[in-house]
Amino acid sequence: MRIRRARCHDRDVPEQTTRRPQTISYPASDVRSARGALEPADPHVIVLFGATGDLARRKLLPGLAHLAASELAPDIRVVGTSLEDLSDEEFREFARKAVVEFGSHSLTQDQWDKFDDNLVYVPQTAGPEPLAAAVAHAEAQLGPEALRLHYLSVPPKAAVAVIAMLRNAQLVERSRVVMEKPFGTDLASAIELNNTVHQTFAEEQIFRIDHFLGKEAAQNILAFRFANGLFEPIWNRNFIDHVQIDIPETLGLDERAGFYEATGAYKDMVVTHLFQVLAFVAMEPPTALEPRAISEEKNKVFRSLLPVDPSQVVRGQFAGYTRLDGVAPDSDTETFIALKAGLDNWRWAGVPFYLRTGKRMAEGARIISIAFKEAPRSMFPLNSGVGSAGPDHLTFDLADESKVSLSFYGKRPGPGMRLEKLSMQFSTRETERAGDVLEAYERLILDAMRGDHTLFTTAEGIESLWERSQPLLDNPPEVKPYQAGTWGPNAIHQLIAPHAWRLPFERAWREKK
Ligand code: BG6
Asked: What is the pLDDT at residue 303?
């Protein structure tokens, strides 16, 4: 098979034209994008593949229920489908439990009843006809303006079969498709997957989701950097010493071990979430807040990424992992990874980016920490405390409600000149708008319904990342064991020396009393 690489979709008109298999017609509102951010989305039938899976239960069904109730997407009908054989009633009960257990906003009885009425289920094993019939029925209720959003919450191997099913059910017209990562497992498979998907869907119909970019706090990085005059002038190798992107998780793998065994921390988290966040931290100012401009700048970051050097990577596996169901007794899969990455461009040359993530670790956190170069401190007396608590830091917390902290040395009150680390902190939770925060999937589903690609990843970007990952995939260092409840194997300290990991924090975030 001939492997053809994706190019930036916006510049790739001739190839797009040959790839596009059929006419796509959207109403004019398709392009309203960010301009109409507060307007309700057009009526949509959401076809949810993997509707009884973990992601649907934790995020997608609660998110759809909230979007419907919040009037951001009042006219949606959900057709759930998966390999399980459920009735409509059983699916509604499944969804109700999911919303109660995992919903970030509680629903009134009326809101729930309305959502519940709009849920139906079709077993995937029944084939394309019943699916097409269920969609047609839902569309008849919504009217001729209705669009389709197919959410593929399925493993990559299953995605190809689902796409064939959509084609056979003639559900490609007027539709968009949201695809879950991992997008391939290396460069060749990513190219093959992209080519296969392009046989059915045009690039503008495809929304490759990376939910970290839907987090309020990730978007706040763009606001912070590009809406203020204060930070951008110092956002470069002259002032920044190093960057840490640290996403430890306490959770283990439960029923996901089978999936994870073939994936591991690098493919599950780094190629997707951590590198995507890195791009927001490192990109040049885009010319506009719109998909082409943002993708161009992100893709430039990925192209500047130095190939991942296996000698700068620590892979770990928590003790007990190999006893989980679905895991090989001699498994080499990493449940932890830390690495030193670098960007070969003018802004960032020589600035290390330390990335870390893993399962069953000591704490759950999602932070980006920017360490500034230290000041010459000759004017302060010895033992004044200056520099004793590390460099000044700017820290972003990627929790659903974003937090930002700027730490600096200040004078300890009282006689003499003793210095100590102080901080200025901001938390969305303390603002009047805290209730407006959308959970990451909610935000991205809404954007996909509106045809707005700004926060989605492109085929070109993903392929660049796989290309730069190849040295590690070809030559992974041995996995080192670590005890559950720790910060990973000891080698993480050598990796970051002479710096130190920011986590665990010496000072906790201040919570409003
Ligand atoms: C998912 C990974 O994409 O992100 C999971 O597959 C991980 O392994 C999760 O736990 C973390 O997301 P969040 O939003 O809970 O930090």
From this structure: 97
Nearest CA to ligand 1 atom 4: 269
- Helix (H), strand (E), coil (C) string for 76-120: EEEEEECCCCCCHHHHHHHHHHHHHHHCCCCCCHHHHHHHHHCEE
What pLDDT digit, counting tens, does each position of 182-218 carry?
899 999 999 999 999 999 999 999 999 999 999 988 9
Contact between residue 214 and residue 443 where contact means Cβ atoms under 8 Å apart: yes
Rounded CA separation 469/195 (Å): 20
pLDDT tens track for 320-365 = 999 999 999 999 999 999 999 999 999 999 999 999 999 999 999 9
Q: Which atom of ligand 1 is nearest to the CA of 366?
A: 16
Q: Of the residues 198, 211, 273, 453, which is catalytic?
A: 273
Tell me what pLDDT residue 208 has. 96
Pairwise pLDDT comparison (434 vs 29), residue with the higher score: 434
Q: Which two tokens stand for residue 346?
A: 């003018």
Amino acid at 223: A
Residue listed under structure tokens 């919570």: 511
pLDDT at 22: 42
Higher pLDDT, 156 or 249: 249
Which one is predicted more confidently, 228 or 378?
A: 228
273 is catalytic: yes
CA of 326 to the centre of ligand 1 (A): 20
Predicted TM-score of the model (pTM): 0.90
Centroid of ligand 1 to alpha carbon of 273 (angstroms): 9
Q: What confidence tens digit (pLDDT) does each residue in 16-39 have? A: 333 444 444 444 333 344 445 678
Residue list, ligand 1 pocket, CB within 6 Å: 211, 249, 268, 366
Q: Which of 273, 357, 360 to mutate to test the pocket of ligand 1 (most atoms within 8 A of CB)?
A: 273
User: In ligand 1, which atom is closest to the CA atom of 249?
Assistant: 10
Torsion 10-12-14-16 (CA) sign:
negative
Strands 147-152, 175-179: pairing is parallel
Angle at 129 between CA 126 and CA 130, to 5 degrees: 60
Closest C-alpha to ligand 1, atom 15:
249
Residue 121 contacts residue 91 (beta carbons within 8 Å): yes
Q: Is 414 left (phi over 0), alpha (psi -120 to 50) or beta?
A: left
- Tell the residue nearest (CA) to atom 14 of ligand 1: 212
Cα(249) to centroid of ligand 1, in Å? 9
Q: Which atom of ligand 1 is nearest to the CA of 247?
A: 16
Distance CA 120, CA 341 (A): 46
The closest-lying atom of ligand 1 relative to the alpha carbon of residue 272 is 3
Angle between helices 216-226 and 275-282 (to 10 degrees): 20
Contact 336, 265 (CB under 8 A): yes
Measuring from atom 6 of ligand 1, which residue has the nearest CA? 268
Pairing between strand 147-152 and 44-49? parallel
